[in-house]
Amino acid sequence: MKLIHKDIDKDGRGKMVLVPDEGEDMWHTYNILMEGDRLRATTIRKVQQESATGSSTSSRVRTIITIQVEAIDFDTAACMLRVKGRNVEENQYIKMGAYHTVDLEPNRKFTIYKEEWDSIILERIENACDPAKHADLAAVVMQEGLAFVCLITSAMTVDRAKIEVNIPKKGKADDTQRKKAIVKYYDQVMAAILRHVNFDIVKAILIASPGFVKDQFFEYMMKNAVQADNKLLIDNKSKFVLVHSSSGFKHSLREVLEDQNVAAKLADTKAAGETRALQQFMQMMGNDPDRAYYGIRHVEQANETQAIETLLVSDSLFRSKNLDERRRYVRLVDSVKENGGDVKIFSSLHISGEHLDQMTGVAAILRFPMPEIEEEDHALDSDED
Amino acid sequence: MSRHRDIRNLDYDEEYDEACDEDVYGHSVDDGDYGVSPGMEQYLYSRSRENTHGFGLYLPVEDNIKEEEESFENSALESPGIERSRHDSSSYQKPSLSSEDEVRLESVLDEMRNILGDQFSERELIQTVLKNNFELDASINELLNKNSTSDSAQPLPQRERRVRNRVAANAASAFVEQLSLCNSQQQSQQAASNHLSTKASSSIQTPMPVVVTTSAKKGETSRVVRGFDVLDAEESAAAENNLVAEEEEAKRSRSCTPVRGGKDKDREKDKETSSYTRTPAKIRDKEVNVLAEYNEQRASGKELLNLVVVGHVDAGKSTLMGHLLYLKGNVGQRVMHKYEQESKKIGKQSFMYAWVLDDTDEERSRGVTVDVAQRMFESDTKIVTLLDAPGHRDFIPNMITGAARADVAIVVIDATTGAFEAGFESGGQTREHAILIRSLGVSQIVVAVNKLDTVEWNQDRFVEVKSGLRQFLKTVGFKDADVVYIPCSGLTGENLVKPCSDEKLCSWYSGSTLIQAIDGLKVPERGVSRPVRMCISDVYKGQGSNMCVGGRLDTGYVQNGDRLLLLPQGNVLNVKGVQADNAAPSTAFAGDHVTLTLGGVDPSVLHIGDFLCDPTKPIPLVNRCQARIVVFNIAVPLIRGTQVDFHYLSVTEPAKIRKLVSQLHKTTGQIVKNKPRALVKNSAALIELEFTRPLCLELFRDFKELGRFMLRTGGSTIAAGLVTQLLD
């Protein structure tokens, strides 16, 4: 993402001009843009024109439009952002108040007008515009008969393919069926890797599985690559990293990212940082539960006494349509930062963010134990009962 | 009048005083920070207390959820139960002992509490210890055996009873509390309430006239909200009149969980069935008297036993079983010779017997079992389906699918110096497997102490292993009577089929061989006349366009030409062939491992983990379920939203914990805390699970063969559970 122009006055109103470079920037934009904002971007519109004789012709014209945003859709698989709204600026082709849906395109600039630019959004833009923070990674999580191919960028984990093949069990006199099924399974995983992984961009490809599946698959793939003289695979052989995971489900990707060897390789990526923070939280929960709280009510209580050392928040909370709720979280984040706490905003597209979302989306590690929060809560609960 | 009162009161008073004092001192260290009255204590959650509990504690909890058939004489048990809970632990006065004996008693008691938890009262413990002269082992044995005999004689304390009990116990404890609070001042009032408490225990309908203390209030109110009070009252009335039949009826309509839902569930089931009644298919056109058929076909022959072999990696499971199969003549001489030559060629001759069961290339080249192998052999009295489970920790999911199909287990122990200890440490598979098979419902095991030839058949080693294991297995919940220890060697074949021949072994061992031990195991009852349920554990192409599925027929009866409903897909499939190793072709009964040939089915429809069932009585399909779990020794506590792998028969699916409903007491199942923030290790709880796609589940209450599951995450088993309610 590139920031072209920024014009924000003292009370937070203003506009920004941005140019998205790649799919991930669409995800950032999705998190920046709120309902009620105004968006100015170039778009294509079908325009019907009626000639003097009454015959009508329709033509597609490219024009610049400013809309008041009413709905935003993000497609994770294709990384497309569609923004629907009403026209607020008269132009040659489109009347005021007419509905239009803009597909934001990479490398074309757009302008966002907001009534209030808050600290979270500004920070997000800053991060998005920092070219050093990119580290692309592909991961294949496997277990016999099941595999997921995912791409991990700094802000997203995107599923690219799920492979499911029925592999007959061992123990029959004739095991050709089993062997055939295994070969079919490996072939499908290999095809998925070749189709979805761009070897120019990714820094490493993780292959994770329990047991020997990863080794056998890697062996098979390399043997095949040599036979078929697949330069792409042979040249990038060193990019493959074999990691142990406990299962072939997508959520074991978290385990993979926690792995010491892998963590060293991606030390600075956001995904690894998030995983680490969540791990810390869980550990704290185990060792000293009075210093780990989740749920907005508990966390706010802890914040009142300035107890928060690390705050974990999922970015999905900032997409809330309810402005008050959003402000509540922004206030929380700002106040923690003010008090010298560390704030980690998780991407809800990462596995760790998904997990954080499941546990209400907000969690905190405290500086000192606060057992009273739970006690108070318990008292409240029993009152409710 | 006054004479009566005197006798009652005086005794009571003093004893209560003593008991309360003891209580307070016993816990003063933990609870020092806040003043807790002894009666409150049971409702408070304290982490430190949690740790003093042994592992075996929660296993009886499972038993508390029982099928309905076994729940007759509750009413008879009822009043003594109440009596006990009120008097025993709190009011029992220790016999006076010399100071030395006192210390010995305390240390033995501590140890026993560690192992047994609080399933026995203080009085029972002390009496047993004194009887056995401070011998720890003997006392534990006696207690456990006592437990088991009472098990067989009378049904186990049921969950139903406990719910009722709790009301009584609560009421009683409320009174007790008052007693202890006001005893010094108000003798006469006390007498009244004392009288009442006796009354309350016999009939809960008695209104409580006195101020209710907080603890009691908490318990009571929550129940009132959930509408259990009424039920319980009815229940006890019924019990009083010994209306067993009526009670039975009442129980049917009630959930076994403390949360309301019995009725919901029934309604749900009705809905479920009604939605399927559209399907015109019946399982078969002509009715078959399944029981008669079963008796005719099976009564005379050998009994069927499903046996799983577990143990630490490289303990010699496959070798032991391979050798056993060879000695029983299930593997040909020629085949064995071939294995011997081939294994010699790659320098792994010691694996030759393991190759009988490890038949894929990867397993042979790595020398590790990856997936469960299934074989069949006959002993003198039984037909045994052998399931050889992998021992490597990465393949525990496979091991679970195997163990879920088993009735009994052989635990193989490597007796080599250091190897037993390695398997037994906290990361060792001996430990984890034993816990797993117990949680999956296996109650009888044979412990094969393997590789004893490497230590020169040293008796001391055998005894050492045995005593080390005995303690542990007891804490896991295996009774001593259900565990047999056999010294043997898988590689030399010593003491497997023929009685021991090695002098060194014969010098001290004259017990049974492994095969005799297997013969001695009891076969559990099979749900032959229940609706058909079968979880598919293998799918492959048969001849022509037919598909074959393998798996254990969990309940019911299948014959050629039957129509079965495949769920979750919803197809009705024709059974073209039924093949079970142990029986005549074309029929199979519950418990058999069968291969069904299905006609007219698209191969892509069938998956491992799908269910086949009776089209008229389909298995419910749910997205969410409520379950009682016991949490194992985990590092990271379980909180809402934790993602887990859900293992259920052959099904392995990702799931997440949607809600922590309540934390339960491990032995009694009482609610300790509603909506806990987190579940720490070794706790029990009621939780709600959510799956990513609909799964076929049965309640443990309805089908004890189904309904048990394991939760795993990050390569370790975190909890075992029972399905108690289906939601959605």
Word description of this protein:
Chain A: Residues 1-130 form the eRF1/Pelota-like N-terminal domain. Chain A: One of its GO terms (molecular function) is metal ion binding. The complex is a heterodimer of chains A (385) and B (728). By secondary structure, chain A is α+β, with helices and mostly antiparallel strands. Chain A folds into 3 domains: 2-132, Pelota, domain A (SH3 type barrels); 137-265, Nucleotidyltransferase, domain 5 (2-Layer Sandwich); 270-384, Ribosomal protein L30/S12 (60s Ribosomal Protein L30, Chain: A). Chain A contains 12 helices and 16 strands. Chain A has helices spanning 23-32, 119-128, 176-196, 213-228, 231-235, 253-258, 260-265, 270-287, 296-304, 323-338, 351-358, 371-384, and strands at 2-8, 14-19, 38-50, 56-75, 80-87, 99-103, 110-114, 137-143, 146-152, 157-164, 204-209, 240-244, 292-294, 308-314, 342-346, 362-366. The longest helix of chain A has 21 residues, at 176-196. Chain A starts with a strand and ends with a helix. The mean pLDDT of chain A is 86. Chain B has 4 domains: 1-36 and 66-255, no CATH class; 303-519, Rossmann fold, CATH 3.40.50.300; 525-613, Elongation Factor Tu (Ef-tu), domain 3 (Beta Barrel); 621-727, Beta Barrel (Elongation Factor Tu (Ef-tu), domain 3). Chain B is built from 23 helices and 24 strands. Helix content of chain B is 39%, strand content 22%. Chain B is of the alpha+beta class and 728 residues long. In chain B, the strands form 5 sheets. Chain B has a 6-stranded mixed sheet with strand order 2-3-1-4-5-6, with helices on both faces. The longest helix of chain B is centred in the first third of the chain and has 30 residues, at 2-31. Chains A and B meet through helix 8, helix 11 and helix 12 of A and helix 10, helix 17, strand 2, strand 8 and strand 19 of B.
